[in-house]
C-alpha cells in the first residue's frame, strides 16, 4: 500500500479547492473566535434579491467576489434589485471589502425590514454606509453622501477612502445603542441610535418621509444595486 506524507495530504486537499474557494477559506477572520462568513466565495447561498426568493442575474460571483453588473442591457433583460442577506442580525460587527467602478455608487444597508407590502425598497427601513466614487459621482459633492458616511445623516471623517478601483475594508458595529463605521482601519462615524438626537437627524433628512426608517434595530443586510458596477468580498460577521 502506498503511504502519503502530511505535506502530500495537505497539497491534495488544497488542490480540491478552486481559486474561488481558496479566497474564502483563507480569510484570516475565520481563525478568530466568533466570526462567521456571510459569503462563501463560491455562490450566493444565503442571499436573495429583496422581496424575492431568488437572486436576479445582474448579481454574480466572479473569482471569489460578489459582482453587480450595472450594464443597462443586463439590468433590463435580467432584472435588478438590492441583494439581501437571508438572516437578520441585531447586535453585530460586520466586516467586508468593497470596490466601486469609476463614477459608481452603491451602499451597504443594515436593519432592513423585508416586508415588500409595507416597504417597497430596502432604504425605507435600513440606514446605509455609503459606497461611492467620491470624485466621479455627483453625490461626492454632497455633504453626508460621500464614501463611508452614514448616508444623509452623518458626514464621516475625510481622507480615508482609497482611489477608485482599489479595495476598501469597511466595518459596521451596531451594539446596544452605539453605532460605529470603520473604513480602512479608521473610525469615520461614531454615534448613538434610538435616542432623541437620532430621531432629530432622521427628521432633518430625506428619510423623514418613511416613518419606520431606522426605528427597528434588527434586520437584514443589503448590498445596494444603484445601477453601477461594484464588487464585494470577505463578508464576515460577529454577533455581539
The outline comes out as globular
Number of strands: 13
Number of helices: 4
Estimate the helix proportion, in percent. Answer: 10-25%
For the record, the CATH class is: Mainly Beta
Cα-atom Rg, whole angstroms? 19 Å
Question: In this structure, how is the largest beta sheet organized?
Answer: 8 strands, antiparallel
Class of secondary structure makeup: alpha+beta
Tally of individual domains: 1
Named at the architecture level, the CATH assignment is Sandwich
As a percent range, the share of strand residues is 25-35%
Superfamily (CATH H level) name:
Exo-inulinase, domain 1
End-to-end separation in angstroms reads 51 Å
* Average of pLDDT: 88
CATH topology: Jelly Rolls
Element order, helices and strands? HHEEEEHEEEEEEEHEE
How would you describe this protein?
- The longest helix is centred in the first third of the chain and has 10 residues, at 6-15.
- The protein has a single domain (6-239), classed as Jelly Rolls (Sandwich).
- It has helices at 6-15, 19-25, 72-78, 196-203, and strands at residues 35-37, 47-49, 59-62, 65-68, 83-85, 92-100, 105-112, 128-132, 168-175, 178-183, 186-192, 220-223, 230-239.
- The chain is α+β, with helices and mostly antiparallel strands.
What is the fold's blueprint, element by element?
Layout: H1 6-15, H2 19-25, E1 35-37, E2 47-49, E3 59-62, E4 65-68, H3 72-78, E5 83-85, E6 92-100, E7 105-112, E8 128-132, E9 168-175, E10 178-183, E11 186-192, H4 196-203, E12 220-223, E13 230-239
Antiparallel strand pairs: 1-13, 2-5, 3-4, 4-13, 5-12, 6-9, 6-13, 7-8, 7-12, 9-10, 10-11
Amino acid at each position: 500500500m502506498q503511504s502519503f506524507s502530511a505535506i502530500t495530504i495537505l497539497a491534495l486537499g488544497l488542490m480540491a479547492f478552486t481559486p474561488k474557494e481558496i479566497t474564502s477559506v483563507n480569510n484570516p477572520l475565520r481563525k478568530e473566535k466568533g466570526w462567521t462568513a456571510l459569503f462563501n466565495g463560491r455562490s450566493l447561498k444565503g442571499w436573495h434579491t429583496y422581496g424575492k426568493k431568488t437572486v436576479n442575474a445582474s448579481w454574480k460571483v466572479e473569482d471569489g467576489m460578489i459582482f453587480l453588473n450595472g450594464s443597462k442591457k443586463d439590468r433590463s433583460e435580467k432584472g435588478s434589485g438590492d441583494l439581501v442577506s437571508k438572516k437578520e442580525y441585531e447586535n453585530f460587527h460586520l466586516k467586508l471589502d468593497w470596490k466601486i467602478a469609476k463614477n459608481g455608487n452603491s451602499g451597504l444597508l443594515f436593519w432592513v425590514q423585508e416586508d415588500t407590502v409595507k416597504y417597497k425598497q430596502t432604504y425605507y427601513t435600513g440606514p446605509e454606509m455609503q459606497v461611492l466614487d467620491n470624485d466621479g459621482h455627483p453625490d461626492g459633492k454632497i455633504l453626508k453622501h460621500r464614501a463611508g458616511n452614514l448616508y444623509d445623516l452623518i458626514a464621516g471623517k475625510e481622507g480615508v477612502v482609497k482611489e477608485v478601483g482599489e479595495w476598501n475594508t469597511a466595518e459596521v458595529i451596531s451594539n446596544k445603542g452605539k453605532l460605529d463605521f470603520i473604513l480602512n482601519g479608521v473610525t469615520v462615524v461614531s454615534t448613538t441610535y434610538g435616542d432623541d438626537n437620532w430621531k432629530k437627524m432622521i427628521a432633518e433628512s430625506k428619510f423623514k418621509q418613511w416613518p419606520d426608517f431606522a426605528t427597528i434595530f434588527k434586520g437584514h443586510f443589503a448590498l445596494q444595486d444603484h445601477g453601477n458596477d461594484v464588487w464585494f468580498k470577505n463578508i464576515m460577521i460577529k454577533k455581539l
